[in-house]
Specification:
Layout (H helix, E strand, L loop, with lengths): L2 H17 L1 H6 L4 H12 L15 H20 L8 H28 L5 H11 L20 H16 L1 H10 L10 H35 L8 H19 L3 H30 L7 H4 L9 H25 L9 H22 L7 H9 L5 H12 L4 H36 L7
Length: 437
């Protein structure tokens, strides 16, 4: 398809979505379904105006999906409403670790026993499909930085962590396949690709987020009150943290997410300390001054200033990538094996893994049920698939994994996109809203 047609297609779609946004919010479907429908319409499924070949364009698609996931992880991180504590984060941590491991194991078993794939390929497929998506799950994620909804918090923080948590299993699957450069399959894999990657990524993110928060706060509180370009600071933090993580061979996705979380929480603590100091200064004359001290008179927060811009970038990447997904699919891509795998992931692997991981927690069963269903698969899965292809995955196996992954993602967009608005609305009408303690 000519470049001019691409401009018309994408530009026209953006115009329609922008002009009809208030109408679309009332429809029982998500915007992702509309993007996918347009991609299927102009792609080889129907009009065949263009065909995107993910095998030939793996390098490009790897970069596009990588950037989209990083921006989405940052946006999710700076919306975390309350400081980190193990009590609040226990459920998301269990979902991002135990649930992920169970999901990988179940998908690997399905691939090995039902689809007849080698064990290494099954583990790799499980790793590709196990992370829930921070890009396509907008309707079930934290809506703003003051949103304390427990269900949305659980799903958002899980997606923020398990995109990074999938990487060790990707490495394990490629090691079992015997690909060059991937040989860690035992204790070395556990120590290097699991412990070092996770701990190193989280530590790097915490240090970077803390440093930027304190530096930005200090500059804005100096007598000259420096003006800071928050959009640049947000993107700069993503770039520096991720680049350092890749150089140090630690979890880059984890580093970016926890850098954003730490940035937000540190700025909240600094603002609260400033209010307390003001309150003590006026003690005796205005005892409630600290509580009335408006945020507008405090230094602006980098996390808040960069959020809107990054969310806009996130939406643009969603449009482009879902159009490309639609442009990869043929009618015969919808094989029984691919559809059966998708249904297994949504109706068996995800619910079982959620139930197992949350045993012994105080998470209400209604929230567990909603969490079990809304395990949206999307851009993170495409990234890990392209990552494996770019590092020597055999072509025959690559084509098989491309078909399976794309159908799972497409069906996730359809099934979760059609169910999210009615189910979320019914859920909150029939039960008292649970907030984060």
């Amino acid at each position: 398809m000519a470049n001019a047609f691409w401009f018309v297609l994408v530009g026209g779609l953006l115009l329609v979505m922008g002009l009809t946004s208030s109408v679309l919010k009332r429809l029982p479907v998500t915007s992702a379904i509309i993007y996918l429908a347009v991609g299927l319409l102009v792609g080889p499924t129907m009009l065949n105006l263009f065909h995107f070949n993910p095998l030939k364009e793996a390098a490009l698609l790897e970069v596009l999906t990588e950037v989209a996931v990083l921006i989405s992880l940052f946006s999710a991180g700076v919306k975390m409403p309350l400081p980190f504590s193990f009590a609040r984060w226990r459920a998301p941590l269990l979902l991002a670790t135990v649930s992920m491991a169970v999901t990988v194991a179940m998908i690997a078993a399905f691939a090995y026993y039902v689809l007849g794939m080698p064990l290494g390929a099954g583990v790799l497929l499980g790793a590709i499909l196990s992370p829930t998506d921070p890009v396509l799950a907008t309707d079930v994620q934290i809506r703003h930085a003051s949103d304390r909804d427990q269900l949305r918090f659980t799903l958002t923080s899980e997606a923020g962590m398990n995109d990074g948590g999938a990487f060790p299993f990707v490495v394990l699957g490629m090691g079992l396949l015997g690909l060059e450069g991937f040989h860690n399959t035992g204790l070395n894999w556990l120590l290097v690709d699991v412990v070092w990657v996770a701990v190193g990524g989280i530590a790097l993110g915490v240090v970077a987020g803390l440093a930027l928060a304190k530096l930005g706060w200090k500059l804005r509180r100096t007598p000259f009150k420096h003006e800071l370009m928050d959009d640049f600071l947000g993107l700069g933090l993503i770039g520096v943290v991720y680049g350092l993580a890749v150089s140090l061979h630690v979890g880059g996705f984890l580093a970016v997410f926890f850098a954003a979380v730490t940035l937000r929480q540190t700025e909240l603590k600094l603002a609260e300390a400033a209010r307390s100091a003001i309150g003590h200064a006026y003690e005796g004359t205005a005892p409630s001054y600290a509580s009335l001290y408006p945020d507008s008179e405090l230094p602006a927060k980098v996390s808040e200033g960069s959020l809107i811009f990054n969310e806009h970038l996130e939406r643009l990447s969603e449009v482009l990538l879902i159009l490309l997904i639609g442009g990869t699919l043929f009618i015969n891509s919808w094989s029984w094996a691919a559809v059966g795998l998708a249904l297994f992931v949504f109706f068996i692997a995800r619910p079982v893994s959620v139930v197992v991981s949350l045993l012994g927690t105080r998470t209400p069963w209604r929230i567990r049920g909603m969490t079990a269903w809304f395990g949206v698969r999307g851009i993170g899965s495409l990234y890990y698939l392209m990552y494996a292809i770019q590092r020597g995955l055999p072509e025959t196996l690559a084509l098989q994994l491309i078909q399976l992954t794309l159908i799972v993602v497409a069906l996730s967009i359809l099934l979760h996109g059609l169910s999210v608005k009615p189910m979320m609305g019914r859920f909150w009408r029939r039960s008292k809203q649970k907030t984060i303690p």
